[in-house]
Design goal:
- The complex is a heterodimer of chains A (241) and B (308).
- Chain A contains ten helices and no strands.
- Chain A has 241 residues and is mainly α.
- Chain A has one domain.
- In chain A, helix 3 runs parallel beside helix 6, helix 6 packs parallel to helix 10 and helix 8 packs antiparallel against helix 10.
- The radius of gyration of chain A is 18 Å and the shape is globular.
- Chain B has 308 residues and is of the alpha/beta class.
- Chain B has two domains: 217 residues, P-loop containing nucleotide triphosphate hydrolases (Rossmann fold, 3-Layer(aba) Sandwich), CATH 3.40.50.300; 80 residues, Alpha-Beta Plaits (2-Layer Sandwich), CATH 3.30.70.100.
- In chain B, the strands form three sheets. Chain B has a six-stranded mixed beta sheet, with helices on both faces. Chain B has a four-stranded antiparallel beta sheet with strand order 2-1-4-5, with helices on one face. Chain B has a four-stranded antiparallel beta sheet with strand order 12-13-11-14, with helices on one face.
- The two termini of chain B are 34 Å apart.
- The chains are: A mainly alpha (241), B alpha/beta (308).
- The interface between A and B is medium-sized, with 23 and 26 residues.
Chain lengths: 241, 308
């Protein structure tokens, strides 16, 4: 498995991808710095920081976009340049191909995204560790779930990126914000619920609008496992070009 | 005495993509030794090789290799070496890293010996530490062949392995394949060029338009093919004089001259004709500019086989 992991790391660490990840991960830190100095002490600072920066920018925007850029490419590139045949002609179980691919996406974007999230939260919450850790854990859960979904998408279609973008913008961005019940089937909903569940006192703005913490954890776990299994099934059944 | 069991057994296999039938009810068997899978581009060779190696599902029928189904059976790849027609490689790896990666994935341990042996077999030891992205097409082909050989498989399935190779590399390939076949391996090689396989494979499978047009001993099929008359185009400085000379030749069935002064010669003995033409031209003092077969392509041969 480690051979495929390192191969995937090499394939996914193109210059533009790394530059995009670093740029997007730095965005919440930059904004947190600005609001830290400009709006600190205002009555609705906490609510605005949580809703706009953590939810609107980090969870609804940067997290899925960065994961999508990497995870859809982990198989997408191999399908496009027709190197996937090398992996599928090896005597290894299909899950041993899927898992290192997902792990490679996580290892590349995880540390950068989590660091950005932690630093931004520390700036917004006066260096308090608990909300920063809650954000980190929630982002990690969201990252894993998105990575499983987008890795599968990269195997299903060569146009995974535009499809994933539409899914992120419409389902996770718009529909999950305005239609009740969609949170139960939304990675954004799981991420915010985990964030709130781990530190209710720091994120009061989320409390009334997120699903229960155990439901969110179970939902994220189920979606991750389901899409990993779908990926394995797809790799078993597809005609490899 | 028991009949020998085929190593590769294809039973009533078809493959269609929507309304397009790429392979139509093909049954074939491959035994130890070298078998050539011949057919023009678009005949369905690669599609059937994909089904044989389990890369693609059969729309109908079934394929077994060494008695096991090849689709959805990754363990079988320990005994099969596959070289696909796509020339894509991981261009950031060196040739040696590519073979080492394959060796590790095949579960070999230690890998140094098999990797050295495979690279040596294809004569790439000197270039093994260069990045694959810097290789010529022929060098990439050889390294891909080394990857197919590194785990010393019992069965080799090679799709157009000689694409991009030079005559010297073809000779080396010929020697390597012959040696591997002599050791008891089963080798299936596809090609759209008759001459590539002619000297290599004793048994051939001819595919045309998704169907198996003929199968069996190469020489027997070739002998039957030789019964048909072939067209040869001859371009000379004196077409009428050359036509007159050719008309008296026993190997020539007919000669015609077109408006451009080019000769079309019909013959059932092309090999002999190719030797006669330069001799006749020299005897008559005629300047010979071009002699080329007009229909010695696989398409025409296959059309002949199919139409018989």
């Amino acid at each position: 498995m480690s051979s495929i992991f390192w191969l995937s790391i090499h394939q996914l660490t193109g210059r533009w991808r790394i530059a995009l990840i670093l740029l997007l991960a730095a965005l919440p830190v930059g904004l947190a710095l600005i609001v830290h100095f400009a709006a600190k002490g205002e009555a609705d600072f906490n609510e605005n920081f949580t809703n706009v920066l953590l939810d609107g920018l980090l969870v609804a925007g940067i997290l899925p976009i960065v994961t999508m850029a990497l995870a859809t490419s982990s198989f997408g590139n191999e399908l496009e340049d027709k190197t996937l045949g090398y992996l599928t002609m090896m005597p290894v179980a299909r899950w041993r191909i899927i898992l290192p691919k997902v792990l490679a996406s996580l290892i590349i974007c995880g540390p950068v995204l989590l660091t950005g999230g932690i630093v931004a939260t520390l700036l917004g919450f006066d260096g308090e560790a608990r909300p920063a850790l809650a954000v980190a854990a929630a982002l990690a859960a969201g990252l894993l779930t998105y990575a499983a979904i987008f890795t599968w998408a990269g195997l299903v279609t060569t146009r995974a990126l535009p499809f994933a973008l539409v899914y992120v913008l419409l389902w996770e961005g718009v529909i999950s914000s305005f239609i009740n019940g969609v949170d139960y089937l939304s990675v954004r909903g799981y991420t915010l619920a985990i964030m709130s569940g781990l530190d209710k006192s720091s994120f009061p703005a989320l409390e009334d609008r997120v699903i229960d913490f155990p439901v969110a954890v179970a939902g994220a776990a189920i979606v991750t496992v389901v899409f990993l299994l779908l990926g394995v099934r797809r790799l078993r059944r597809m005609d490899v070009p | 005495m028991n009949e020998p069991q085929p190593v590769i057994d294809v039973k009533g296999v078809s493959k269609w993509f929507g309304s397009v039938v790429a392979v139509n009810d093909v049954s074939l068997q491959v035994y130890p030794g070298i078998t050539g899978l011949l057919g023009p581009n678009g005949a369905g060779k690669s599609t059937i090789l994909h089904m044989i190696t389990g890369k693609a599902a059969c729309s109908a029928g079934e394929v077994t290799i060494l008695g096991q189904t090849s689709r959805g059976n990754p363990e079988l790849y320990r005994n099969i070496g596959v070289m696909s027609e796509h020339e894509a490689v991981y261009s950031f790896q060196t040739g040696r890293q590519f073979i080492e990666f394959t060796a590790v994935m095949q579960g070999l341990n230690p890998i140094a010996g098999p990797v050295d042996r495979a690279i040596g077999l294809v004569g790439m030891a000197d270039a093994q530490n260069r990045k694959l992205g810097t290789y010529s097409r022929g060098m990439r082909q050889r390294m891909r062949l080394a990857a197919a050989l590194v785990h010393d498989p019992q069965v080799l399935v090679l799709d157009e392995p000689l694409n991009g190779t030079d005559p010297r590399q073809r000779l080396d390939f010929h020697d390597t394949m012959t040696r591997l076949a002599d050791e008891g391996r089963t080798i299936l090689i596809s090609s759209h060029i008759l001459e590539e396989v002619e000297s290599l494979a004793a048994t051939i499978l001819l595919m045309v338009s998704g169907k198996l047009a003929a199968a069996g001993d190469f020489r027997a099929i070739r002998a039957k093919l030789d019964e048909q008359a072939y067209k040869v185009r001859v371009v000379t400085g004196s077409p009428r004089k050359m036509a007159a000379a050719l008309a008296g030749n026993d190997d020539v069935d007919s000669v015609s001259i077109d408006a451009d002064g080019e000769l079309t010669v019909l013959s059932r003995n092309v090999g002999e004709l190719q030797r006669s033409i330069p001799r006749l031209a020299q005897e008559q003092g005629i300047r010979l500019m071009r002699v080329e077969p007009m229909d010695d392509s696989l398409e025409s041969i296959f059309n002949y086989v199919v139409d018989r």
